[in-house]
Amino acid sequence: MYTKQTNSSANAKKWEVELATLKSNNLRLTAALQESTANVDEWKRQLHQYREEVARARHYATGKGGDANEVEQLRQRVAQLEAELAQKNEELAQITKSKKSEQDAEAKLAQSQLELALAAQDGQRQVIQALNDQLARQIDELSNIHREINTALQT
């Protein structure tokens, strides 16, 4: 009986540690996702700045008769920056998808392990209840025997 309780306590502690580990991993993955989101915001800010720069260059080119070569260089730079932004957005999407898949897998594993632990605990509870019922019957029998002996002694 004590061994089963010890095993139950050990299993409970094991699952508590597992749950703490999963929570820690979840926090780490959430932080990585937030960092990725911050990077996207920064990339969007940079894209906005580059677009403003292009608009100024176009204004300069059309308003002041700017150098065609300079305008072409600016167009190439904008195209390059937009390609970099698209690449960064794709990387972010892949990272986000990967992190989400990893979190989902860890959550499913934790859920299945928790269900197993709860089933084991329920089984142990049933065994302990059966032992408790058996002990109660034996105590009742001893009480009856004690009463019979007292009655026999008093007569």
Task: Note the topology.
Blueprint: H1 2-63, H2 68-154
Helix pairs in contact: 1-2
What does it look like?
Residues 26-152 form a coiled coil. Keywords: Coiled coil. It comes from Euphydryas editha (Edith's checkerspot). The chain has helices spanning 2-63, 68-154. With 155 residues, the protein is an all-alpha fold. The two termini are 41 Å apart.
Shape: rod-shaped
Low-confidence blocks of residues: none
Biggest sheet, in brief? none
Tally of alpha and pi helices: 2
Q: Taking all residues together, what is the mean pLDDT?
A: 84
How many E strands? Answer: 0
Strand content: under 5%
Would you summarize the structure shown here?
By secondary structure, the chain is mainly α.
Keywords for this structure?
155 residues; mainly alpha; 2 helices; 0% strand; Homer; coiled coil; G protein-coupled glutamate receptor binding
